[in-house]
Design a protein that fits this description.
mainly alpha
Length: 301
């Protein structure tokens, strides 16, 4: 997910990669780590760091107040579904909710970072363009050196590594299932690299034209939230990606041992608990699709 070369979604990604006991520590020091990440990427001047710091703190406070209730509710619902047993409808509900979470986080991050981008000097813009070009060259070389089959194998290995945090070690049957599902996912890496490169070049052109923060924010929203100009190959792949995630959960569910199942539910409940504790006034914002599912269930009965 290097599409966000810096942004507040880094918080969410970082938290989900840590142990539950580390979530509150990571969140409460997020301003420091985000500032460091941005500075490493842009080589900010001291005055830029000073001027951006209040905006970052404000964005993080908005995140604590406005977004943590959604995050807590998401993991609460996921834990409830995992304990009761996943179904197609429940997974679709969670995927819809996750897309909303992503969009909300992206908009908040973009609003925070657009003024900083608008304040970059020509030398900083040139350095950012060079970084983008270097990363694209690395990605293009990787894409040409690996065929679709090799990328599928590496994707399966990543999935197994990530799932280990949630479930513990997977057995041979489970690893085989993950490999099969990973191979069903369309190979979009070359199209993705090209699309991101084109949008990054457009961003650099906008920065070099001395665009105002509002124009930069509009561009980033169109790119990272609304996915404007998304190539057909990437658009067509989205349903397959959702289906792969659903198939993964539904396929793993009957194979889980009691220990794996309890570990998974414990991870979800731990995140729910931590995201509640991090709020000034703990609350959950119900997922919209949950009410729809409940209504449908009542209608069936």
């Amino acid at each position: 997910m290097r599409i966000f070369f810096f942004a507040i979604p880094l918080i969410l990604l970082t938290l989900l990669a840590t142990s539950c006991s580390s979530v509150r520590l990571a969140y409460n020091t997020a301003d420091f780590f985000i500032a460091r990440h941005v500075d490493d990427y842009l080589d900010l001047e001291r005055t830029q760091q000073r001027d951006w710091s209040p905006l970052l703190k404000s964005a993080l406070e908005r995140h604590r107040t406005e977004e943590l209730p959604y995050l807590a509710a998401f993991f609460a619902q996921a834990a409830e579904d995992a304990r009761a047993g996943f179904t197609d409808d429940k997974i679709e509900c969670l995927l819809d909710a996750f897309e909303i979470l992503y969009q909300r986080h992206a908009r908040l991050a973009i609003a925070a970072v657009a003024p900083l981008l608008a304040d970059l000097s020509p030398a900083q813009i040139d350095a950012l363009a060079a970084t983008f070009a270097e990363e694209h060259a690395e990605d293009a070389a990787k894409a040409s050196a690996e065929d679709a089959e090799r990328r599928a194998r590496k994707r399966a290995e990543r999935y197994v590594d990530n799932l280990r945090w949630w479930f513990g070690a997977l057995d041979a049957e489970q690893r085989e299932l993950v490999g099969e599902i990973a191979h069903r996912i369309p190979d979009t890496a070359p199209a993705w690299y090209d699309y991101r490169h084109a949008k990054r070049e457009a961003l650099i052109a906008l920065l070099r034209a001395d665009a105002l923060a509002a124009a930069i924010e509009h561009f980033l929203v169109q790119w990272l939230v609304e996915f404007e100009d998304l190539p057909r190959a990437l658009t067509d792949a989205q349903p397959a990606l959702r289906a792969a995630f659903a198939n993964l959960l539904l396929g793993l569910q009957p194979t889980l041992s009691n220990a794996q199942r309890e570990r998974f539910i414990g991870r979800l409940e731990g995140l729910r608990r931590d995201f509640l504790r991090l709020q000034h006034t703990p609350r959950l914002v119900p997922l919209p699709c949950v009410d729809i599912l409940a209504a449908l269930k009542d209608g069936d009965s």
